[in-house]
Design goal:
The complex is a heterodimer of chains A (386) and B (344). Chain A has 386 residues and is α+β, with helices and mostly antiparallel strands. Chain A contains 11 helices and 8 strands. In chain A, the strands form 2 sheets. Chain A has a 4-stranded mixed sheet. In chain A, strands 2-3-7-6 form a 4-stranded antiparallel sheet, with no helix packed on it. In chain A, strand 6 and strand 7 form a beta hairpin. In chain A, helix 4 packs across helix 6 and helix 8 packs antiparallel against helix 9. Chain A is globular and about 70 Å long. Chain B is an alpha+beta fold. In chain B, 57% of the residues lie in helices and 10% in strands. Chain B has 11 helices and 9 strands. Chain B has a 4-stranded mixed sheet with strand order 1-3-4-7, with helices on one face. In chain B, helix 4 crosses helix 7 and helix 9 runs antiparallel to helix 11. Chain B is globular, with a radius of gyration of 20 Å. Classes of the chains: A alpha+beta (386), B alpha+beta (344). Chains A and B meet through helix 7, helix 8, helix 9 and helix 11 of A and helix 7, strand 9, helix 8, helix 9 and helix 11 of B.
């Protein structure tokens, strides 16, 4: 056991910190889940890419710097510490790229990775459908064999930032005769293809962050099948549990929230219930536990271990901790909690209320926490399925 | 950055687990409940043989000369079987206290005996006047303010106190300090007292994790076997989700406990905060798991014939020992914010 960093790792941290201090926009950007905000965020993504910070752990040929996993976590810690903008490219970088690296063809890697890293092309995930949410294998959108490729028809929904992205990766039923988990294929689809209609959907937090995407006989060439025909379920499951599954919510994010919560407590404690101090400390310790848990996971990965269903333990913990942290912040704000946007009394433009609403999506997306608990119970504890 | 145990450390944990499963089955814990002294079983001798008691004893005194990261998994295992013997006090607290503070003659007298398993050394802090297993101690190390004193157990009066955990034999110790009995005092004394406190916290936290792991394992086995409505009750989501929550609490307490061991081993200046975080999470995890374990067992878990209650009661006792989770959140709070508001 060695919980210290090497001189090289510390140097990397210093370099990242200095660059972020010089380059992170002084004023927070408008939400990346709005049309205008998304465009502003892409300018930032470009800047990150030019400095080779957009995908530090990727090979240099795709715009990365071959950083180790440890350096990647260090980067994330610094990124959130610096309150740098949200990553609107994250669904491509964290959910699609790991699959491309694992099962993508050379053509696909060359065609898509660099443009993804620079933000020139942006990716959304097409998994959920109106009748396939937690029961993902209930997907009915179809892929029909045609000359030179496939024709896609059906509807995807809850597609995060779908209204602003250029591309979609998703699951379609290529063999309707096969079992529920078989006969699905993973496709890469440009959203400007003929037959694609994208409608933005307003979210609970007021942003147009969701979309529904309709496919009406959309042609996709064979070269954009990812990971093999009828192999989509296994490809999708590799990603959900893949090493980078943990990257969706890196520890830096919660450490930064915990630090902001400590600051808020210091500003507000004279007006707030004294019991809230205990909650703030609990939140701070939770972020610390999450950080250490992540280092344990990172070590396991470096040593060649498989993360597997541990990703579910991780997901339930961070998503519920995030809600709790925001609830504590709102309690500290008391009557100011409801004030948002440009209200003159709003604290940090109501960012805690906004963050609270965003946090509420955590226990729902990427597999609801109910599904995660089933996975933990069945695959880790070995309890019988129904 | 390498946050894992070595293959040797994990193998050693397995060895300790196996030997404790054999030498400290539930009947041994039950015997302690029925009045057998805490140190009646054969476990201690075996733990000494494989090097647990002497893990922190320097090699020149016959020990392993290793550190807390080597010991913490063995202590977790001692919690898993609810070992009644004072392993934390002897191996994790007394041994390094004697190693670091005792004059040569005293160190040479006691450290080899700790390593061979011939001496049980029990440490008593002012903060917790009910000292477990004082009746079986070969040496008592008692705190008096800023001082630690070496006390001959044959020259003290012990008064038995009852714990909710009947296998914990608690005693107040009526003893007298003399000039000769002082091991350490003054500035160094306070340092030693704080270190001893942090070490007790680490040891108890590791045991709480072990207790929680055992209660969860037992409950998983039970809900797979127990049938109602024609199916194992473990197939119901109402059960699954409770036990998933138990595992989450346990898995997030663990890294805090292991980090605390590392921080003590490396004399990290924040070690006190780190052990407090460990104790807070481990206490909450163990009491949470105890509650779910009971609920998922139903009435059988509520009987005193069934073993579960012995683990639950140990968990309750240790969760409040040396400060409960609220106490330790306050301690961490002082590290973050400075003094408590009410004491400003």
């Amino acid at each position: 056991m060695d919980l210290s960093f090497t001189a090289e790792e510390e140097a990397f941290r210093d370099e990242v910190r200095a660059w972020l201090a010089a380059n992170v926009p002084r004023e927070p950007l408008p939400s990346g889940d709005t049309r205008d905000g998304f465009a502003r965020h892409l300018e930032w993504e470009r800047k990150l890419f030019d400095a080779r910070y957009s995908v530090v752990s990727w090979p240099a040929e795709y715009g990365g710097r071959d950083a180790s996993l440890i350096e990647w976590v260090i980067f994330e810690e610094e990124y959130y510490r610096a309150a740098a903008p949200q990553r609107v490219t994250q669904n491509g970088i964290f959910l699609l790229a790991p699959i491309l690296f694992e099962v993508g063809t050379d053509w696909q890697k060359d065609r898509y990775l660099r443009a993804m890293a620079s933000g020139e092309e942006t990716w959304c995930q097409g998994w959920s459908e109106p009748n396939a949410g937690s029961d993902l294998a209930g997907i009915v959108s179809k892929a029909r064999r045609v000359d030179g490729g496939w024709s896609l028809s059906g509807q995807k929904t809850w597609t995060t930032r779908g209204a602003f992205c250029t591309h979609l990766f998703g699951l379609f039923r290529s063999d309707p005769e096969a079992g529920r988990h078989r006969g699905l294929t993973y496709f890469l689809v440009p959203l400007d293809a003929d037959g694609v209609t994208v409608n933005g959907v307003g979210r609970l937090d007021g942003d147009e962050g969701f979309a529904e995407v309709f496919f009406d006989d959309v042609f996709v060439p064979d070269r954009d099948v990812l990971g093999g025909v009828d192999n989509g379920w296994s490809v999708a499951m590799t990603t959900t549990n893949s090493e980078r599954g943990l990257t969706l919510r890196s520890p830096g994010r919660f450490m930064a929230t915990a630090d902001r919560l400590v600051d808020l407590y210091q500003q507000r404690h004279e007006l707030a219930d004294p019991g809230l101090r205990d909650e703030v400390v609990q939140a701070w310790m939770g972020a610390e536990a999450y950080r250490l848990y992540t280092w344990q996971t990172v070590t396991k990965m470096i040593e060649g271990g498989d993360i597997g269903p541990d990703a579910s333990i991780n997901k339930v913990f961070w998503s519920e901790m995030d809600v709790k942290m925001h609830e504590t912040a709102l309690a500290l704000l008391g009557p100011l909690a409801e004030l948002v946007d440009t209200s003159s009394e709003a604290v940090d433009r109501g960012s805690w209320m906004k963050g609270f609403q965003f946090a509420l999506s955590g226990p729902i997306y990427a597999g609801t926490n109910e599904i995660q608990r089933n996975i933990i119970a069945e695959r880790v504890l070995g309890l019988p399925r129904r | 950055m390498q946050f894992s145990f070595t293959e040797d450390q994990v193998l050693f944990q397995r060895t300790v687990r196996d030997l404790l499963a054999k030498e400290c089955p539930p009947e041994v814990v039950r015997a302690a409940w029925e009045g057998e002294p805490a140190h009646a079983g054969r476990a201690w001798g075996r733990l000494a043989e494989v090097g647990v008691t002497g893990m922190l004893v320097p090699e020149e005194h016959g020990g392993m000369g290793l550190d807390e990261t080597d010991l913490v998994l063995a202590l977790e295992e001692s919690g898993r079987v609810a070992l009644p013997d004072p392993i934390v006090s002897t191996a994790l607290v007394a041994a390094p206290l004697l190693r670091d503070r005792a004059p040569q003659a005293i160190a040479s007298k006691w450290l080899p005996r700790i390593a061979t398993g011939d001496a049980l050394v029990v440490v008593g802090l002012d903060e917790s006047p009910n000292v477990p297993s004082a009746d079986v101690a070969d040496l008592l190390i008692m705190q008096l303010g800023s001082e630690f004193h070496l006390v001959d157990p044959t020259k003290v009066t012990l008064n038995r106190h009852s714990s909710v955990d009947g296998s914990r034999h608690l005693f107040t110790v009526d003893w007298r300090a003399t000039d000769e009995s002082m091991l350490v005092g003054g500035e160094q004394g306070w340092q030693s007292v704080n270190e001893a406190f942090d070490r007790l916290l680490l040891g108890v936290s590791a045991q709480l994790v072990g207790l929680a792991a055992h209660m969860l394992d037992t409950t998983v086995t039970y809900v797979k076997d127990r049938h109602q409505f024609g199916v194992p009750i473990g197939s119901f989501q109402a059960i699954k989700h409770q036990l998933a929550d138990c595992l989450i609490k346990l898995e997030f307490a663990r890294p805090l406990v292991y980090r605390a061991a590392y921080s003590i081993a490396t004399t990290n200046p924040d070690a006190s905060s780190h052990v407090s975080m460990a104790k807070a999470f481990a206490s909450d995890a163990a009491t949470f798991v105890a509650g779910r374990a009971l609920q998922c067992h139903g009435a059988i878990g509520y009987t005193d014939e069934y073993d579960l209650h012995m683990w639950m009661k140990r968990a309750w006792a240790l969760a409040s020992r040396y400060g409960d989770s609220r106490f330790h959140r306050r301690r961490v709070g002082r590290a973050i914010f400075g003094p408590d508001p009410q004491t400003q």
